[in-house]
Structures are given as structure tokens and as C-alpha cells.
Write a structure and sequence with these properties.
13 helices; mainly alpha; globular; single chain; about 350 residues
């Protein structure tokens, strides 16, 4: 049975869990482990594999773009609506936060005051096209450079399938060349992490055309593999950077494919809390790093320092996530509606419906 559902509650929940993993990683490794703050390793560094939430997001992005826009490939009239949907999903909310971060960076001893902003860095940050400076103006924005590159490649396939095949082939060749030490692409384009978008496209194709090959048990296998890789990463690292990301991506693809195939057979009941976190995941992802920076300042308060470290960690993570959820409802949703009215959809319908999960 082919998958036709337009919204998958389990995948929405997965987005929320992935965003939470990234928050836990940064809270543990970038706040509590720092000597300026608690100088403590939380649970022996257990959450330090949370960066793999990004791998899940990349696979999910490939899946969602294919799920919603595969029918647009070879239909150039639909390209404008594809571009519109992608730009409105990514840029307005991101620019809102980016402008705030830049403004704070210009204040003495303000947020990111240690980062020297150059014109090239700022321009690159606004357009999300390389070169990627390290660090980026907004710490997590490096992932959006990869996301936009994938959208450009997919947009080319919409305009011309043949050109899309050439671009995809050249991109994969560039990644392989970089892995072999002969790079001809900018470093972020030659990074093997970009292959995770293809994992997402591949698992979409499998879930649509052969869902019977994806029993729900594979979601548990993927979850177990994801956690095992996380423990390898934290406590006994063996794999290389590229291999680990590809394995995290493979585990993510199993989880996504099996859950989607299961939802094609019968709905999966999902906690409303996880659904809310999933809906707010983009806001949580974009806001959490600067919010963590502000919340961490509470360490200077004696009463906060007197709290048990575990309790302080839970409170910091909870406040950071709640701030992201509040931003989603108070800023992201109204801003998305306003920009959608400002740039209405064109006449050629794009894909098979609205994009419920199409953000990184």
C-alpha cells in the first residue's frame, strides 16, 4: 500500500525529540561543562551525542521535501511555489533571530561579543550561502547552509530533471572527492553529512512504493542503533566523523521509514507534548543557543549555585525549551502567516499539499 498521508504524528514527535537532543547537547557541553559556569560533566557526558539530532533533521528534511514535492519534478511551472514555500519556511524567522543576535553582538560584553563580525560573515549569514565562516553569527546556522544547498539542488530538478541528475551526480562526486583528499567543492558542500538528504529521499521512495519492507520493528532497531552510536561517540569513540554521521543517518532513516509505513497502515497515538515540541522545533532550534547563553548567566546568583547540579540542569533545559515554544506561538506562527499573505501562492499548485514538517 502506497503512503499518501500528508501529516505523520510520529515524525512530528521525532522532530521534537531531535530538537531536545540538540538542546541537551549544548546545555551539557557548552554550558555546564564550562569553567565559567558549573564546570561539571552531566551524567559523564551522556548527552554529548545530542548533536546527532541534526543528522535526524537532515534525513527528515530529505524525506519531507521528496514527500511533498516529488510530483513537482519536471514541472517548471511549479518551481516558483517551491521557492516560495522554502524561503518562507526558513528565512523570516531566522532573520528575526539573526538581526537580534547581531544587535546584541555589537553591545559591549554582549552576546557573541567575542566574535568579530566581518561584512562577508554577515552577508553570508543573511543569504545562507557559503563560504561558511566558523563560527557562524548564529551558532546553529551552519546547518541551514546545507539545507539551502539541498533546496537549490531539488529546485534545479523541478526545473529540469536532467539538470537535476547532473547536479546531484556532481555533488555526490564532490563529496567523494573531498573524502579522498581531492576537494573541488567548498568545504561545507563537500561534507559527507550532505548525503543524509539523499538518505531521506531514499527512505521516502521506499516507504511510498514498498512500505511492506519497513515493519515497525525497524523503528526500534533504528532507535537502538542511534542510541548505541551515541554511547560509542561519548564513551568509546571508534568511528570517523564521516562514518559516524552516515551511521546516525542510516539509523534515522530506519526510524522515519518504519514509522511512516506504520502510519500508512494505522495512526500512531502521540503525546500532545511531543506534538507541540515538534511543531515548535524550528523555533527551539534557532533560539536555544542564545537563550542558553542568557539563562546560564543565572549561575552568578548564589541561590542558583546552591541548587543541586542535576536540578539546575533540568531547570536550564526546561526554561530554554519553553522559551523556544513561546517564540513559536508568539513570533514564528504570526510571522509565517504575515509573510504568507505578503507573498501569496501562485496559480500552479506545488506538490500534493501543504508542508507539515518541512523545516530543518
Amino acid at each position: 500500500m502506497a503512503i499518501e498521508r500528508q501529516s505523520f504524528g510520529s515524525i512530528q514527535a521525532g522532530r521534537g525529540v531531535a530538537a531536545l537532543l540538540v538542546v541537551l547537547f549544548h546545555a551539557s557541553a557548552k554550558v555546564f561543562a564550562k569553567s565559567d559556569y558549573w564546570d561539571t560533566t552531566i551524567l559523564g557526558g551522556f548527552f554529548n551525542f545530542g548533536h546527532a539530532g541534526v543528522d535526524f533533521f537532515f534525513v527528515l528534511s530529505g524525506f519531507i521535501i521528496a514527500h511533498v514535492h516529488a510530483a513537482d519534478i519536471g514541472a517548471p511551472a511549479r518551481l516558483a511555489n517551491f521557492v516560495r514555500s522554502r524561503l518562507l519556511r526558513i528565512y523570516p524567522v531566522y532573520w528575526f533571530i539573526l538581526i537580534g543576535v547581531i544587535a546584541l553582538s555589537l553591545l559591549p560584553f554582549g552576546l557573541n561579543s567575542s566574535v568579530h563580525l566581518t561584512p562577508q560573515m554577515v552577508i553570508s549569514a543573511f543569504v545562507l550561502v557559503g563560504p561558511v565562516d566558523s563560527p557562524t553569527v548564529l551558532a546553529v546556522a551552519w546547518t541551514l547552509f546545507h539545507e539551502i544547498a539541498f533546496y537549490i539542488a531539488f529546485g534545479i530538478a523541478i526545473a529540469s530533471p536532467r539538470a537535476g541528475i547532473v547536479v546531484a551526480g556532481a555533488w555526490v562526486a564532490g563529496i567523494l572527492a573531498s573524502a579522498l583528499g581531492y576537494p573541488f567543492l567548498p568545504p561545507y558542500l563537500g561534507d559527507s553529512i550532505n548525503l543524509l538528504f539523499l538518505f531521506g529521499v531514499g527512505i521516502w521512495w521506499l516507504s511510498k512504493h514498498h512500505p511492506q519492507t519497513l515493519p515497525i520493528v525497524l523503528a526500534w532497531v533504528g532507535t537502538a542503533g542511534f542510541l548505541a552510536l551515541g554511547m560509542e561517540n561519548v564513551f568509546a569513540p571508534v568511528f570517523s566523523y564521516a562514518a559516524r554521521h552516515l551511521l546516525f543517518g542510516a539509523a534515522s532513516a530506519l526510524i522515519i521509514g518504519a514509522l511512516v509505513a506504520q502510519e500508512g497502515r494505522r495512526p500512531i497515538k502521540v503525546s500532545p507534548v511531543l506534538l507541540t515540541l515538534g511543531a515548535a522545533s524550528y523555533s527551539i532550534y534557532l533560539t536555544h543557543f542564545p537563550v542558553l547563553g542568557f539563562v546560564a548567566k543565572a549561575h552568578a546568583i548564589a541561590a542558583v549555585r546552591a541548587l543541586p547540579v542535576a536540578l539546575a540542569f533540568v531547570l536550564v533545559v526546561a526554561l530554554t525549551v519553553l522559551a523556544g515554544v513561546a517564540f513559536h506561538f508568539l513570533v514564528e506562527k504570526p510571522l509565517t502567516r504575515a509573510t504568507g499573505r505578503w507573498w501569496p501562492r501562485g496559480g500552479a499548485r506545488s506538490g500534493s499539499g501543504a508542508t507539515p514538517l518541512g523545516r530543518p
